[in-house]
Amino acid sequence: MHSRPQPNLGKWFITIFIIFPLLITQLYPLLWLLLYSLKNNDEILSGGIFSLPSYPRWENYVIAIQNGHYLQYLFNSLIVTFSSIMILLFFASSVSYVLSRFRFRFSQHIFLLFLAGMMLPMQSALLPLNLMFKNLHLLDTRWSLIFTYSAFAMPISVLILTNFMRSIPRELEEAAIIDGAGPIRLFTSIIFPISRPAMMTVSILAFISAWNEYIIAATFISSKSLKTLPFGAYSFVSQYAVNYGAIGAYLILAALPMILIYVFLSEWIMRGMLEGAVKG
Q: Do residues 88 and 150 make contact, with C-beta atoms less than 8 angstroms apart?
């Protein structure tokens, strides 16, 4: 007689403990916002949290795309975000390579100086950056956002990449040096490819920060043709009325690119976050 397997209560408890916060923090806001975007103002202001619309008002999404200048602002956000990530990866990986593989007099001081930048809020540099970009004729251009986002993402990126590169065995470099490889080839052929998980982690953090940022963009950008996605939600707020349904639809559309990126690149994202965290 074989005894019936007993239920693993600990496993069930851990599963519930993980799923419950997921439902509260991730799925609930999305479901609420989706229902919100399919209602008119009367249903939103008088209905319950999960009250269904009398009929789905998909025209809110048409209004969001047309009146909120969604496609134009989406294009601007994509250019600014991915350009800042490319600049960030180039400079952060170069600096981290030097700090992790070479020893010179002030290397540790330079590393600590980068870490000190993590304590500086982006908004605290609004005035000096505004004056600097004005003198350089970069104000009201995409470059003002690209340079700012990449610069303020440098400290955490250098921390992650430097610690990751320090964990790479030096025997790989020694073998390449015997074959005649120089510092640049060592970086491009060995260090850079191995560091891709950490670079994925850095890219994710920089993407989220730049994609959702509003204050810097509102300060440096005044031309309507250069505004980014966060500005679109204010297109439906006037002095006497607010189109809440269109705002909800616009927020769904604004979050859609991030959701699609996670769906199609989830394996790379998880691998980058885990390997970058473990080795970093």
A: yes
Residue with tokens 């989830």: 266
Architecture of domain 79-223+266-279: Orthogonal Bundle (1.10)
pLDDT digits (tens, 9 = 90+) for 139-196: 999 999 999 999 999 999 998 888 888 888 888 777 878 877 777 888 888 888 888 8
Best CA proximity match to 184, nearest among 64, 94, 85: 94
* 193 C-beta neighbours (distance < 10 Å), count: 10
Mean pLDDT along residues 53-79: 89
Question: Which residue(s) pair with 237 in the sheet?
Answer: 242
Nearest to 150 by CA among 95, 189, 102: 95
Exposed, middle or buried: residue 78 (CB in 10 Å: 0-12, 13-18, 19+)? middle
First vs last Cα of the chain: how many Å apart? 51
Residue with tokens 């700012």: 148
Length of the chain (residues): 280
Q: C-alpha distances in angstroms, 240 versus 9, 37, 67, 243?
A: 56, 20, 17, 10
The two three-digit tokens of residue 276, written as one number: 């970058």
